[in-house]
Structure formats: structure tokens, C-alpha cells
Design brief:
The protein has about 250 residues and is α/β, with parallel strands linked by helices. It is about 30% helix and about 20% strand. The longest helix has 20 residues, at about 155-175.
């Protein structure tokens, strides 16, 4: 796994994911702005699905677009502290132009954060949900360069329409109460074993919790820490930030 070596001056870092930012949910967008303006963390990790949908980096060139406004906010914040970004299943088309426009550093999924003596595996989490076989097939196809090139060759207006349709299908699935797959315990444990890490931090499942995993060969505890999704405008009012030190973590409700 790729590694990110934390600088010695870091004292606290924060993790967020699954904000699903969209102009149709202004309260969530405002909460995001307020959080960035008030955070005192040395670094912030945005672990995917920050946007409800990302239709391509060329959306940044559209004057006054929501994407351009968000990029401007991130650019201003990246001048104050380190920002790291990992794509999710909704914003996996965010590419180099997006990173350049925002000043953020892109991370592979998964990545190992090496912070002093602490090793932490970071992931969006969708790759761990093995029971969702239909999605895993789509994930494999949609991450291919050929598939993305074909989609990005479509006019921006067409891609926005495709994104709107995908959002509608997602809402219908939520309302149907169909069960969502959770992160696979065996694969989560294997990742920690491979990385020689104690913590796995991810989002995607919208099930914020801590899960004890089998200890390592030395009997040291290992934990899967699931980030909160953000929904300020909907009937589910939830938004949390995970603040982490080398020793511990805490959830900060907004």
C-alpha cells in the first residue's frame, strides 16, 4: 500500500467523508464552509463522496458553477493547512485538474498514514463492501481509463443529466429500505495485517461506529472506524468530524 508519512509537527488531524455536497442541500454546504473555517486541525482528510456527483473536471471551467465555487473554498483552505483527498464512488471522476484547482493532495485507495509509531489504513470503504457484487462489477468497469474516457467525451450537459439520473436512482433505493452491504471483516483484517496497522478509517457505508477486529499476532487490538455521512437538510440530521491524535480519536458533532 502507498504510505503517507506525517510530518513531526502534526498534533491533530481530522477526517470527513460522504458529505454529498450538492446545491440542492444548502444547509449541508453551509455546514461544510463553517467547519473548514473553524477547524484547528493540522491536516484534514476528505475520504470520498465529498460531492453528490462529480461529472468531470471541466465543470470547473463553467463560470459560477457549484464545482468552481467549492474548488475556490478548498483552494483557500489548502493555503492554511494540508488537505488530502481520496475519491469515492460518487466523485471518482475528480482528476488532476481538480487537485490543481483546489491545492489538495490526492491519495490512492487504500493509503497507510504513518504518524510516529501509529499506522492507520485510510480508505473510502466501497472496495471493502464485497457483498454488493453488482456495485463491485460497476466499480471495476468505471475505474478503467477507457470507460472514463468514453464518459468524459460526452458533453458536460449530458454528463450532468446522467448524474441527475444517478441521484434519482439512489434516492429511490434509499426509500425502498433495501439493505446496503457492510465492509467485509476478513478483507478489513487482511488490509490491517498487510499494512501492519492498528486502525482502519473509512466512510461509504453511512454507518458511523467502531468495530473491533481480530487482534494481531502480538495481541494488539485492531479497530475499524467508520466515518459519519452528512445530512443537514434531510430528515436524518447527522454530521460528524473524526478528530484523531496518535493516541486516540473522538467524534465531533456539528
Amino acid at each position: 500500500m502507498p504510505q503517507l508519512i506525517a510530518p513531526a509537527h502534526w498534533h491533530t488531524v481530522e477526517f470527513i467523508s460522504d458529505l454529498h455536497l450538492d446545491p440542492g442541500e444548502p444547509a449541508t454546504v453551509q455546514a461544510w464552509h463553517d467547519y473548514l473555517a473553524s477547524s484547528t486541525a493540522d491536516a484534514i482528510f476528505l475520504l470520498g463522496d465529498i460531492f453528490e456527483v462529480w461529472v468531470g473536471d471541466d465543470a470547473l471551467l463553467e463560470p459560477g458553477s457549484f464545482e468552481a465555487q467549492c474548488a475556490s473554498t478548498l483552494r483557500a483552505e489548502s493555503a492554511k493547512r494540508s488537505l488530502f483527498f481520496m475519491v469515492g464512488n460518487r466523485d471518482f471522476l475528480a482528476g488532476d485538474a481538480f487537485l490543481q484547482a483546489t491545492g489538495m493532495t490526492g491519495l490512492a485507495d487504500p493509503t497507510v498514514l504513518v504518524w510516529g509509531e501509529r499506522r492507520i489504513v485510510l480508505s473510502h470503504g466501497d472496495a471493502l463492501c464485497l457483498d454488493d457484487m453488482e456495485y463491485q462489477k460497476f466499480r471495476t468497469i468505471s475505474r478503467s481509463a477507457a470507460w472514463q474516457q468514453q464518459l468524459l467525451s460526452q458533453p458536460l450537459a449530458v454528463r450532468r443529466a446522467i448524474g441527475k439520473s444517478a441521484r434519482s436512482e439512489s434516492e429511490q433505493r434509499k426509500q425502498s429500505a433495501a439493505p446496503y452491504a457492510d465492509a467485509d471483516t476478513a478483507m478489513s483484517t487482511a488490509w490491517l495485517e498487510q499494512a501492519q496497522a492498528q486502525w482502519l478509517i473509512h466512510g461509504h457505508t453511512h454507518r458511523p461506529a467502531e468495530h473491533a477486529l481480530p487482534p494481531d499476532a502480538q495481541g494488539q487490538a485492531r479497530t475499524r472506524i467508520v466515518l459519519s455521512d452528512w445530512h443537514i437538510d434531510s430528515h436524518v440530521h447527522r454530521a460528524e468530524v473524526l478528530r484523531v491524535t496518535q493516541q486516540d480519536w473522538q467524534r465531533l458533532p456539528l
